[in-house]
Amino acid sequence: MSEPGSTQREREMIVEIEDLSRHFVVRRSVGRLRREKRVVRAVDGISFTVGKGECVGYIGANGAGKSTTIKMLTGILVPTSGRVRVCGLEPVRQRRELARRIGVVFGQRSQLWWDLPLAESFRLLAAIHRLPAERAAARLERCVELLDIGPFLDTPVRQLSLGQRMRGEVTAALLHSPELLLLDEPTVGLDIVSKEALRAFLSAERAETGTTILLTTHDLPDIERLSDRVVVVDGGRVVHTGTLSGLAAEAGVDRVLTVELTAPAEPLGDVPGTRLLSVEAGGLRQHLALTGSAAAAVAAVSARTELRDLTIAEPDIEDVVARLYRRAAATRSSTVD
Amino acid sequence: MADTRVYAALLRAGMAGQATYRASFAVELVGTAMGMGLDFVEIFAVFHQVPSIAGLSFVEVVLVFAIASTGFATADLLVGQSDAVIRHVRDGTFDVVLLRPLSVLGQLAAADVQLRRLGRVSVSLLLLVVVLVRLDLDWTPARAAMAVLAPIAATLVFGALFVAAGGIAFWVVDATEVTSALTYGSAYLAQWPTGVLTPVLARFFTFVIPAAFTGYLPALALLGKPDPTGLPDWLPWASPLAAVATAVAAGLVWRSGVRHYVGAGG
Known about the structure:
The complex is a heterodimer.
Chain A: H1 5-10, E1 13-30, E2 34-51, E3 55-59, H2 66-74, E4 81-86, H3 95-99, E5 102-106, H4 118-128, H5 133-147, H6 162-174, E6 180-184, H7 192-209, E7 212-217, H8 220-226, E8 229-234, E9 237-242, H9 244-250, E10 255-261, E11 274-280, E12 285-290, H10 294-304, E13 307-313, H11 317-336
Parallel strand pairs in A: 3-7, 3-8, 5-6, 6-7
Antiparallel strand pairs in A: 1-2, 1-4, 8-9, 10-12, 10-13, 11-12
Chain B: H1 4-19, H2 22-49, H3 58-79, H4 85-91, H5 93-98, H6 104-112, H7 118-135, H8 141-171, H9 176-190, H10 199-208, H11 216-223, H12 239-264
Helix pairs in contact in B: 1-6, 2-3, 2-7, 3-7, 3-8, 3-11, 8-9, 8-11, 8-12
């Protein structure tokens, strides 16, 4: 859990969540007359912050509490307990003020006008956000160019493909230059090319405008491509926060350095910043788990023996997250017992 | 008020959707006007049998009908779809409404304005003007003001009933049957003089469901006639105030409905 503490705290916070919980009461008929009440803790004491300009990946399995959190951040849902502030505002009480300052994309639901041409939706949103005409035009022009939405601007939204519509949704969310962009499963259902185009756009947009982004996704490449930091939730609780590589270390999964040598060598058991995993072909090929910098390890190995080739295998993130989930589940069940 | 232009834009967007189906639009426009014609035939039929109702002549009852009908039609045009919140909640589009920096009710009203209801609004208004001319009233400044305020107050009361019905719909998902009885039932009742009811029922439809304030009581103020069930003579003049109070109460019901949604998460 290595937060780069001091720099984080000095930075202006866009999202502040403290001990946030949201419980739902689910009623269910038992027999003919009795009704059973059950409390579902969708979010159960979550704390994290997102600093200005950061891009944080908020990840977790289905039902982990991601969408519930996003709803509380946007003022659509009242927290059961805890504290939320977004752009310094209280989401539910200051919903309308907040709506001017954030942009939201829900992968599953549209904020565009179904029967109207895409361009008309943008005109309406510009009016809703009271954007001066020239500013709206400039923003739109940029999105049209980078997201390549020009060809279907005059098509009614209901006739767009999912990929085209998502590009429209992202443009709609960014039209008023929000301080915070909340993306809830933005790439769900998209083909690989559309996904990649969207990721490229978002990372360019961020580089250009410094927009803060909070992104929930199942799609780990989204996270790898876009975010500086991840918050992993499971069962309504945070099970990990930190960098993506820190995530790997946390889960006990390392990057693996495989060296191919020109001549068989003794097992490389004592290279600093590594741990020897296995030796093949009588010492010609050796696998080392990296615990430190790859460059330092490679330098140390080549100082000792001649390298013919090398590869570095990044840990499979899906695997890492799955491990974290399993571990969190194990701790949960052990505390229950 | 700076939002007026925004709502106007939303209204145009909603209308553009409706105009797509131009042929059916024209049919429905005529249809709503004809529906009103049928209500009117009912008054003819009754007066074929009796010379007066609750002390009011045929033309005087038509005045009650015209005020209430103008109010109902206008309210129906503007916020008649507010119980469609349930559709928005089910589709998940209600979350999108909450994500915009505008009032929830304003957005729903602007998006769902049913232009075909203009048919009934214009015919009702025409009828109101004709009947006011025919009645040869004893015009005073107060009566002139009431003639203008009465249809506005009626719009406010019916609008309030629609909005309250929408607010209730957040709490009780399948309440449409009940809330329709409240809105359309009151509208039907309001076209007739409340004075024909027993005093207890008349008071129920004055003070609990304020249907009497939408046609009957303002008509009494214009005609200068007393209420046969014994309501005080000043009460008809308080119709605009009663309408404002009803609207405020409905606003609270609506707000609590939205709060409930936000509290329960749909």
